[in-house]
Specification:
With 246 residues, the protein is mainly beta. The chain has two helices and 15 strands.
Length: 246
Amino acid sequence: MNTKKIINIIFDNAKTLIGALIIAVLIRSLLFQPFYIPSSSMEPTLLVGDRIFVSKYTYGYSKHSFPFSPNVTNERFFSKSPKRGDLVVFKTPADNRTDYIKRLIGLPGDSIQFIEGELFINKKKISRQKVENKKIIRCGNFLLETNTFIETLPNGLKHLVAYKKKGSLQNSKIFKVPENHYFLLGDNRDCSKDSRYLDSVGYVKSLNLVGEAKIIFFSNDTNISSMLKFWNINKSFRFERLFKGL
């Protein structure tokens, strides 16, 4: 094989690889992006080890829709307003790089407050119904004894939330959501860094919204299986969560 043929083969392979990369980046940026859930802040809705697909088109596109958030514009294109209760992936305002996922609770202009352990939106108590008592869920390396509720938001959306049985947050300041911002909470209410922490997360700009979580496509319990415990891999699969809609 002469040098010219070798160069042509290399060139053809490079074109194929570059083309595949461009297609992958476009799909990831404009359609769907996979994310891994590394923390327990969204239990019982999302578990550590869940892999989810997030739609990138639901709220339109911004610089944060693309890899490395290129600083080319501060506009959002084809913008669509999120709905209360959406599971939203966003870039944290603290560094505009880290991806978080939380539930959208407060819309622009809303007031949010916890009073005696109950969530209030615009001074109206949010209805919740206890569904399980003393459910054990994770909080980092610890296990929490919690009460689980079905919470019903003002738009009728229902979702599960967990509160610590002992030592749960009782009272908070009033959070007034600014224009063009949103207030997001973790479903694991006493083990979540979210919009209540104004110094690290706080109110999230519309620009920082990345997309909406749509489906769990794979899940495994990393506490059971790891590279050092590969023999437990079959036990770690959560088959009941495969392709579960959110």
